[in-house]
Design goal:
alpha/beta, globular, 9 helices, 228 residues, single chain, 6 strands, 6-stranded parallel beta sheet
Length: 228
C-alpha cells in the first residue's frame, strides 16, 4: 500500500452517529432558544469540536450557552448511543483488511475521548482501537479545520504526514487533512461530493474504500487532488 498510516475520522466514518447527534444538538439548541433545524446542525457543526457550537451561537446571538451545555448534551448523546448506535456499514471489513495486511491505522476525531470510547463500546469497535490508536481534539489546542489533530496523530504514530491518508466525511475534516499535507478520501454517504473540496478521492460506501486502499498497493503518490 502506498500509505504508511490510515487515519479515520470517527463520527460518520466508523460509527453512524451523525444523524443521532445532530438531531439531538438541533433539538437542544432550539430548546435553549436558538432555533436550529437538523439541516442547520449538519451544515454548521458536523465534524467540528464542541467549542465551535459555543463560538457560533455567541457570534450570532451575543449570548453564551449554559455552563453545563456540554455535559447535558453528551449525556443525551451517550444515552442515544447505547440505544441506537451502529457501526457504519462495512467499517469492520476495512479494519479487518488493514489488520490482516499489517497496515497501521488510528482514529482522530473532533469528539472527546469519552465520546469516542462510548461509541466504540456500543458498536463493538473497541476491539479494533486501543488507547494508542485514539486521538481527540482534546489532545491539541485547535480542532478541525486546523491541521493540528491530524499532525499530532501522525507524530504519535511515527509516520510522516505525506505518508498518511485521512478518511473524512466533513468539509472541516477535509480542510484539516489538506492543511496537514495529507491525502484525504472523502466519504459521501452524508455529505454531497461538491462540498468535500480538496479530496484526493471520493467514495460512497466502505466497500469502495476497501477497494481504493487495496488498489493503492501498486499506486503511485502524487496524483492530483480532486477539486470536487
Amino acid at each position: 500500500m502506498r500509505y504508511d498510516l490510515v487515519i479515520f475520522d470517527n463520527d460518520g466514518v466508523l460509527v453512524d452517529s451523525e444523524p443521532l447527534s445532530n438531531r439531538l444538538l438541533a433539538a437542544y439548541l432550539t430548546e435553549l432558544g436558538h432555533p436550529t433545524s437538523y439541516e442547520d446542525s449538519i451544515r454548521d457543526y458536523m465534524g467540528s469540536a464542541m467549542h465551535r457550537v459555543h463560538d457560533l451561537v455567541a457570534e450570532r446571538t451575543g449570548r453564551r450557552l449554559p455552563a453545563d451545555f456540554d455535559d447535558v448534551f453528551h449525556a443525551r448523546v451517550f444515552a442515544a448511543f447505547e440505544r441506537e448506535l451502529k457501526p457504519v456499514t462495512g467499517a469492520v471489513d476495512v479494519l479487518e483488511m488493514l489488520t490482516e495486511d499489517a497496515v497501521p491505522y488510528c482514529v482522530a476525531s473532533s469528539g472527546s475521548h469519552e465520546r469516542i470510547r462510548v461509541g466504540h463500546r456500543a458498536t463493538g469497535l473497541d476491539r479494533w482501537f486501543d488507547d494508542a490508536r485514539i486521538f481527540s481534539s482534546q489532545d491539541v489546542g485547535r480542532g478541525k479545520p486546523a491541521p493540528d489533530l491530524f499532525l499530532y496523530a501522525a507524530e504519535r504514530m511515527g509516520v510522516a504526514p505525506d505518508r498518511c491518508v485521512v478518511v473524512e466525511d466533513s468539509p472541516l475534516g477535509v480542510r484539516a487533512a489538506v492543511a496537514a499535507g495529507m491525502d484525504v478520501y472523502g466519504f459521501t454517504a452524508m455529505t454531497p461530493a461538491e462540498k468535500l473540496v480538496g479530496t484526493t478521492r471520493l467514495f460512497g460506501n466502505m466497500r469502495e474504500l476497501a477497494e481504493l486502499l487495496d488498489g493503492d498497493r501498486s499506486g503511485h503518490r502524487g496524483r492530483d487532488r480532486r477539486g470536487n
